[in-house]
Design a protein that fits this description.
It is a single chain. With about 130 residues, the chain is α/β, with parallel strands linked by helices. The protein has one domain: Alpha-Beta Complex (Spore Coat Polysaccharide Biosynthesis Protein SpsA, Chain A), CATH 3.90.550. The protein has four helices and four strands; from the N terminus they run βαβαβαβα. It has helices at about 25-35, 55-65, 80-90, 110-120, and strands spanning about 15-20, 40-45, 70-75, 95-100. α2 links the parallel β2 and β3 (about 70-75).
């Protein structure tokens, strides 16, 4: 019996992010990722020559996180190169790309992945970025 709207399977997903000098935002992003209603199967962060505390903050977060995080250091990599490196190093076919300057809605990943789980013909899904001010 098939229940309409029920997920036929739970897709495996990699969340990727490129960073450079994100010490002001990286912990907020990681914490919002860890609070997702549906956790990613892996998180790949590519660092392109940060000169601030970004890498140290990520490593510190990794020690106590329930997320499976891989940090890749890619000297001189720009955003596009960093994303390509992350994609090449991902273990899963579904890749959700995000930026360290974002605060994720608690259901962001669940909503991004849902179309893939419900329809095997889906190839691409996009979300909406809303401005955030403190």
């Amino acid at each position: 019996m098939h229940i309409k709207g029920a997920n036929p399977y739970q897709a495996k997903v990699s969340v990727i992010c490129t960073v450079k000098n994100e010490e002001e935002t990286i912990l907020d992003w990681l914490e919002s990722l860890e609070k997702q209603s549906r956790l990613p199967d892996e998180v790949i962060i590519v660092n392109g020559d940060s000169t601030d505390r970004t890498v140290d903050l990520i490593k510190e977060f990794m020690r106590n996180s329930k997320l499976k995080i891989r940090l890749i250091v890619a000297p001189s990599a720009n955003i596009a190169q960093g994303r390509n490196i992350a994609i090449k190093n991902s273990q899963y076919d579904i890749i959700a790309s995000n930026d360290a300057g974002c605060k994720l809605h608690p259901h962001w990943l669940e909503n991004i992945i849902k179309p893939f789980e419900e329809d095997p013909t889906v190839d691409v899904v996009s979300g909406v970025y809303l401005p955030w001010y403190e």
